[in-house]
Amino acid sequence: MDFTELIKRRESIRSYDPLKPVPEEKLKTILGAGQLALSAANRQPWKFLLISSPGMLEKVRGCYGREWFHDAPHVIVVVGLRDQAWTRSFDGYNSVETDAAIAMTHIILAAENEGVGACWIANYDPVKLGETLDLNRNEEIFGITPLGYPSPDFRKSGIKKRKTYDEVVRIL
Fold first, then answer.
1. Residue 157 CA, distance from chain mean position
2. pLDDT tens digits in sequence order for the chain, 172 residues long
3. In a domain, 70, yes or no
4. DSSP 3-state of 116
5. Is residue 159 part of a domain?
6. Which residues of 95-108 are buried (b: 16+ CB within 10 A; e: fewer)?
7. Total of domains in the chain
8. How many CA atoms are closer than 13 Å to the CA of 72, on its beta-carbon side?
9. pTM here?
10. CATH code for the domain in which residue 74 is found
């Protein structure tokens, strides 16, 4: 698909078909897009946790309260590794959050390209989720997304509310 068309079509999906898991090959393609994401100094300070087993899905679902989240057959958790990220010498800025966000964006756009629904979620309980996933103190969760096919009755709205070009672009 043309990239511009892809970003115009992408919508956050909040209605999943729980009986239709994503084939392994598509999951690899989607996660591979995250693997290919750019990062500061090419450090790639991330891990992608793919949760598909019913037992672990049930535990992870307890970290985010929306009912629609419970129907997705997969969840991806993007974890950043702060000690592996590039740090700017001028002020100590650590790029882990930016790098993880770029990887998550690649994953979500790749899902759309594969016809798979996703929805970037930040409103989860990070302490509970970290404990559930048995993360160490260097591993920080920067986003989660359910992954699955939209439910049969779901229809995209096709409406994107965005600021105008002139509101967001400043030419100097």
1. 21
2. 799 999 999 999 999 999 999 999 999 999 999 999 999 999 999 999 999 999 999 999 999 999 999 999 999 999 999 999 999 999 999 999 999 999 999 999 999 999 999 999 999 999 999 999 999 999 999 999 999 999 999 988 888 899 999 999 999 9
3. yes
4. coil
5. no
6. bbbbbbbbbbbbbb
7. 1
8. 28
9. 0.95
10. 3.40.109.10
